[in-house]
Amino acid sequence: EAASGTLIHYATKPGSVASDGDGKNGTYTEALLAMMSQPGVPVEQMLKRVANRVVDKTKGKQEPWVEGNLRGDFYFVFQGPTMVGVQQSAVDSESEAWRMAEGAGNVAAMEAYLKEYPNGNYASAARIKISALTKESKPEQNSNGLEKPVNANLPRGDVLAKVNGQAIPKMVGRALIDGQIAQGKSDTDELRKAVTEELVRRTILTQEAVKNGLGQFPNVAGVKTSIDGQSFLAQQGVLIGAYLNDYVRTHPVTDEQVKKEYAEISAKLGNKEYKARHILVEKADEAKAIIAKLTKGEKIEDLAKDSKDPGSKDRGGDLGWANPASFVPPFSAAMIKLEKWHVIQLEDTRELKLPGIEEAKAQIGQQLTQRMVQKHIDELRAKAKVE
């Protein structure tokens, strides 16, 4: 039974057996690795895609199973300094943009939604909401008509950091930390540093959105509680989503870029796959003893039970079919530096069949887009003045 706030996903339903697959990973693991890196996909939706892929691959013989229920939203792309909103925002759907705008409940959020979806499903509702909110006081402006940073009345002790003169309220950081704690993380110095950096980047992107006329900067002075901080983050999310969507639209990945990336990937992978079994031991004498037993006819899968590699020993040392480039760095480093001893038995080789460029085009384009967006964010971060 899953504890409250916990989600458990099993490779197959109760009473069934999970398939080992025909590659380096099992069928479930292969599907999970393929799906979990997709940006902006909530974990519940991602696991549904995993389940469908496994069911299709096994022709219905294996069906992943889920138990538990999360209290908050979780995305695998939100780890480290980009754990909230950055990559996800570029692919937000209209319904998600409206949900965030409605949660924020102010003119800036509604205008940001309308800027991105002027004829959207919720456009009429947004205009009605704006009409009802027009009595709110407008922020002070500079002589050139641009809105001033909304931090004039924010006490120094309530400021987490400043980005290009714009204050980040501590309560926004508190809201973000609370959200991470609700997902099982611990309130550590490392988490606080990551949250601060994330808020710096969010502020930079929000400033860019305002510069591009996508809406107004959320009212910093109004953030007094953690709940206010959540509303502030929702408003930012709408603006960031609108800005990044616009950036991707105006900086499309070209066919030439896709072809170049495909050629580089093809060259890196080569044209062969290898099927090997592997035993990892600590000492040279142990490796020599295993080789002597193999020479006498003993089977490597029987000897692999004493391997130090937990990933392959339960499969008789079987590494499955793999391209050399797919081996993890520690494995390659160990072979080169001989820090430990590996006994590797090559069972077979075959030609590597890569998908055609048309088949891989969509995935490569998505990866190039993500890389481009991340580079843009990093460049903006490098230019920003952070106090």
Structure write-up:
- It is built from 14 helices and seven strands.
- It is mainly alpha-helical and 387 residues long.
- The strands form three sheets. It has a three-stranded antiparallel beta sheet. Strands 1-2 form a two-stranded antiparallel ribbon.
Question: Brief description of this entry?
Answer:
It is built from 14 helices and 7 strands.
Annotate the secondary structure layout:
Blueprint: E1 7-10, H1 27-35, H2 43-57, E2 65-68, H3 86-89, H4 94-104, H5 107-116, H6 123-133, E3 159-163, E4 166-169, H7 170-182, H8 189-211, H9 226-250, H10 255-269, E5 272-281, H11 284-295, H12 300-303, E6 318-322, H13 329-337, E7 341-351, H14 357-383
Antiparallel strand pairs: 1-2, 3-4, 5-6, 5-7
Helix pairs in contact: 1-2, 4-5, 4-9, 5-6, 5-9, 7-8, 7-9, 8-9, 10-14
Question: Any descriptors?
Answer:
387 residues, mainly alpha, three-stranded antiparallel beta sheet, two-stranded antiparallel sheet, 14 helices, 49% helix, 11% strand, elongated
Order of helices and strands: EHHEHHHHEEHHHHEHHEHEH
Task: List the total number of helices.
Answer: 14
What gap, in angstroms, lies between the N and C termini?
47 Å
Strand content: 5-15%
- Whole-number average pLDDT? 78
SS-derived structural category: mainly alpha
Low-confidence stretches: 78-92, 135-155
Total number of strands:
7
Estimated radius of gyration: 26 Å
| Largest sheet, spatial ordering of strands | 6-5-7
Overall, the morphology is elongated
